[in-house]
Write a structure and sequence with these properties.
Elements lengths: L2 H19 L5 H24 L9 H16 L10 H23 L4 H21 L1 H4 L5 E2 L14 H24 L1 H11 L1 H6 L4 H27 L1 E2 L6 H14 L5 H17 L6 H15 L7 H22 L5
Antiparallel strand pairs: 1-2
Length: 333
């Protein structure tokens, strides 16, 4: 079995274990896993930019927040005798997230490196400012609470386990869709742009357009994450679109391993787990989490998903040393 097939098999086994084991826990564990998976979709959407296109963004919370706010607003809206249900919000949230990314991308994609990072940060803060100040729509500091709880359409989503299964389905579908994307010729082009942008230009690729499309795709899945998060959390506030949300998504992706997709999900699970567990032990849990980030960046720059490769390199170096010792050792007669 090839290394790639082995990784896919391990991911499938882990997903099945998650699907079976989490519902066996208490309601807190189920809700924590649901929120972690909703946020993992955001981290994976960011990985399309960071890990596969080489664009580090600090504005992903904007699309996350737009999807969440739109869901909460329309869920409480009964004008013209219509009630906006869950299934309608999925395509709407993705479309609005993608549309906002299409607008922001016109400004951001023209920059590179630190300038790209700062522009996405500024654009994201504009959305946060609207969420904080536009009281008539967003509710300001109080936010928007979803009235009536989660929707019901033959499946009782007010039941946390049922909603966990539904969130898992969207998480798995997102992982599969993004995996197919990165394995496609378009995804290979993104990798080429990340590694040698000038060479891709010389070969005739429209680098700006490729980046722009990747930016829109990331925004669309960010909107999807926001829709699910709104139903999982039950309330949407300006904290949803604050800079910390974008930073968390970025650090989760780096912690798990940028350029792996699954790394974002692993980072999300670790951060949510540590945040909830360590915060019950010590009041300075932020320092513990910060220490984990620092140690990962210093000693595992490729993230936790890079550990097998580091182990393989270490074993190869050990074999080379042993071979060198055997060839240089004096022969006895």
């Amino acid at each position: 079995m090839s290394t790639q097939n082995l990784k896919i098999a391990i991911v499938i086994v882990c997903l099945l274990a998650l699907l079976v084991l989490v519902p066996m826990g208490n309601s807190f564990v189920v809700l924590l896993a649901t929120r972690a998976m909703a946020f993992a979709i955001l981290a994976m959407s960011l990985d399309i930019l960071l890990g596969f296109t080489g664009l580090a963004s600090l504005g992903q919370a904007a699309y996350f927040g737009v999807g969440a706010y739109l869901t909460a607003y329309l869920a409480n809206y009964y004008g013209f005798g219509l009630k906006w249900d869950f299934w309608l919000m999925i395509p709407i949230g993705m479309a609005v997230g993608g549309a906002l990314a299409a607008l922001f991308g016109l400004f951001a994609i023209r920059a590179t490196g630190t300038y790209f990072l700062m522009i996405t940060l500024a654009l994201g803060q504009c959305v946060w400012g609207l969420a904080y100040r536009w009281n008539s729509v967003t509710g300001g500091d109080n936010g928007i609470t979803l009235k009536g709880g989660r929707p019901q359409f033959g499946i009782d989503l007010t039941n946390d386990i049922n909603f966990f299964y539904l969130t898992f389905a969207f998480f798995a579908a997102t992982l599969f869709a993004l995996y197919v994307l990165i394995r496609s010729p378009f995804g290979k082009s993104l990798l080429g742009i990340r590694e040698r942008e000038l060479r891709m230009r010389i070969l005739g690729y429209n680098v700006w357009l490729h980046k722009y499309i990747a930016f829109i795709i990331a925004g669309a899945f960010g909107g999807l994450s926001g829709v699910i998060w709104a139903h999982a959390n039950g309330i949407v506030t300006p904290e949803t679109v604050v800079l910390t949300t974008s930073v968390d998504a970025l650090l989760m992706t780096v912690l798990g391993g940028a350029g792996t997709l699954v790394g974002g999900a692993i980072g999300s699970a670790i951060v949510f787990g540590l945040r909830e567990y360590v915060s019950t032990l010590v009041p300075w849990w932020q320092y513990v989490l910060g220490g984990v980030y620092v140690l990962t960046i210093l000693y595992l720059p490729s993230g936790l998903m890079g550990i097998p490769e580091r182990v393989r390199q270490w074993r190869n170096s050990q074999k080379k040393r042993e071979t060198t010792k055997m060839t240089t050792a004096p022969s006895s007669h």
